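Onboarding guide, step 5: your first structure request.
Type a short instruction followed by the sequence, for example:

Predict the 3D structure of this protein.
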Amino acid sequence: MQTPSGSAHKTCDGLTRRNFLRIGASGLIGGLSLPWLLEAQALASTDRRAPAQACIFIFLEGGPSQLDMWDLKPDAPAEVRGPFNPIRTNVTGTMISEHLPLCARIANKYTIVRSHSHNDNGHATGYHYCMTGYRADFPDGNTRMPNNHLYPSVGSIISRELGPRTTLPPYITMPYIMAAGGPGFYGSEHAPFVIEANPVAADFEVQDLRPLDGISPARQERRRQLLRDVEQLERDRAEQGRARAMSTYYQRARDLMSSPEARRAFDIRSEPEVVRRTYGYTSLGQCCLLARRLVEAGCRFVGIDHSGWDHHQTIFPSLIKDMLPHVDHAYSALINDLDQRGMLSNTLVIMMGEMGRTPVINREAGRDHWSMAQSIQFSGGGVRQGQVIGATDRRAAAPTTDPISVEDILFTMLTQMGIDPAKIYHTPLGRPVPIVDGGRMIPGLV
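The system replies with C-alpha cells like these:
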C-alpha cells in the first residue's frame, strides 16, 4: 500500500497540512459542533432542479504545473518545455502529458480550460481568493485555519443556499479542513463537516459517528434525560425558542450518529477491492472514492485538499513518482465511476489549484509560483465535455484568448447548481456582500 501523497508536505510558506481539526468541536471554526451544523442546515433546506445537484471540488494545493500536465509546449526551448512529452487523447487534436495516460483515454468526458488567470501569487492568499472569490485581507503566510474569517467559502455558500438532501451534512471536506474552507460571516452553522482521517488508512472511520466505547444504552439514555432536563430549564428562561430549537438539533445529531445511511456512506471498506484499486491506494484516490459515496448518499459539496504541489526544487522526479500517477488514477476513476453509475450528468467535478507554475525551470530544477496561467478541468453537471477552452502563449505564461477569472469559475459553478451568484447577504455590521462580486458564465463551457 502506498504512502498517502501530500500528507506531510509543506508549501514554501512553511505551513503543513495536519490532521488537527476535530469534527465535533473546534474553536478554530467558531465552535462548530454537529448540533449547530444541523440547526443551520434546516434554515436552508430546499431542493432545486439544476444541471448540477452536487459538486466534487478537488484542490491541488501548492500549484500544479500547467506546462507538465495539461498545456505542454513541445516546441518551446528546453528550459521551458521540460522533459515531458505530449500524447494524444481520445479527442482529436487534444494533447496532454505522457504521465496522464488514463486521463488521455477519457478526454471526451471532461473539458480543459487553459486560460484561467489571476494575479495573486501567494499560497494562503491565492487559496482564499479561489475559494471565496474575494481578495484576502491578510499577508501571504497566514497560518490560521480556516483563513477566510469574513467571506464564506463556496462550500458554505452551497450549504446555506441549498441545505441538506439527506441526513448527511451538505458540506464535507477531507482529509482535513481546506485552508479557506470556512463559513466566514455565515457562522459556524455553515462550516464544513470535516473528516479528520485519511480514507487510505486500514483503520479509517469517521470518529464522531462512532458511539462512545463503554457506555451502555441505559447510561446513554440517562445522559439524554439529563440533557432534556437542562433544556427544560432553558425553556423557562428568555431564550425559549432557541432552547426548543436546539433540542431538535441535538436529536438530529443523535439520529445522524445512528443513521444506517450515514454509516453506509462513510464505510469505504465495503467497496469492492477492484474499485478501490482502480482509484488507487493513495490519499487522493481514496478521497475521490469516498467523495463519490458521499455525493451518492446526498452530500451537496465535497472538498478534497490534496497537497504537495509546491515544487520549487526537483519538480520532475516528484511529478513522475507520486503526483501525476496519483492524479491520473484518481481523476480518471472518479469520472468513469460517476459516468457508469449515471451520476456524472448531475455531479459537477472541478479540479484546480491556487496557481500554476513558472514557464522557465529555475536553477534548482523546479518551477516557481505563477498565477497568470493555469489549466482547470471541468466535468459533469451540465458541462460540455471533450473540449479545450482557451489557449496560452508559446511558454504557457499568459492567455492568448479571453482570460477566465476566479469570479468566472465561481459564477459558473454556482449557476450550474441553481444558485444566483448575484444574491446579496449582509455581514453582522450590515455591509452588503454579493455571493460573487462580478463574474460570468465561462464561454462555451455549458
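Each response can be followed by summary notes, for example: The chain is about 30% helix and 10% strand.
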